[in-house]
Amino acid sequence: MRLVGPAGEQVGIVRIEDAMRLAREADLDLVEVAPQARPPVAKLMDYGKFKYEAAQKDRSTRRNQTNTVIKEMKLRPKIDGHDYETKKGHVVRFLKAGDKVKITIMFRGREQSRPELGFNLLKKLADDVEEFGFVESAPKQDGRNMLMVLGPTKKKTEARADVQAEKDRRAAARDADHEAEHQHQAERRAQAAAEPPKKKKKGPADNMDPDIDL
């Protein structure tokens, strides 16, 4: 078999008995890594450590892996300004979260003869959200609809980090406000405790004999 050393160095072609002897002397395992090769390839390694590191790497890969999510937003060619701003806000939110967005312009009736309306609307939307996304798939006609796909400028992991950072910032601001309010109340209580009690002013009835019948 062809033997590879623990550091990846080529030992050469050796007999199985010699390879096993070298493994015992180095207190390592003899692991066949390419049985289909001619001759087969084996490596000297700490198999337990190898399995542990492989499992750690696999967990890290799964943890960092992000699933591509495609959101969809539908618009009409003659959408009014208020609805446009609302839908644009949703698109920005999706892009900031690291998701792709498929924009669908739906044509009805005579609108199908005016594809430029949809194209101009998609171009306007792409320009309005260029800070957060880019045109990944240019506008194209698909039956009665016109489609465009926007991709986020930030990766999913970066977007999540930004969202978490914003949450942490808001939480820190709330804690600071609560601490300031608590300190203010403590100072007011300390100030009130340090002030001498106010004397009650005597009225005319306070100097009268209580036995006098008025």
From TrEMBL:
Cellular compartments annotated: Cytoplasm
Main location: cytoplasm
Pfam families hit by this protein: IF3_C (PF00707), IF3_N (PF05198)
Protein's UniProt keywords contain Metal-binding: no
Ranges where the record places region Disordered: 150-214
GO molecular function: translation initiation factor activity
Start and end residues of each Translation initiation factor 3 N-terminal domain: 2-59
InterPro entries assigned to the protein according to its UniProt record, in alphabetical order: T_IF-3_C_sf, T_IF-3_N_sf, Translation_initiation_fac3_CS, Translation_initiation_fac_3, Translation_initiation_fac_3_C, Translation_initiation_fac_3_N
Compositional bias ranges of the Basic and acidic residues kind: 155-190
Function (record text): IF-3 binds to the 30S ribosomal subunit and shifts the equilibrium between 70S ribosomes and their 50S and 30S subunits in favor of the free subunits, thus enhancing the availability of 30S subunits on which protein synthesis initiation begins.
Subunit record text: Monomer.
Name under which the protein is recorded: Translation initiation factor IF-3
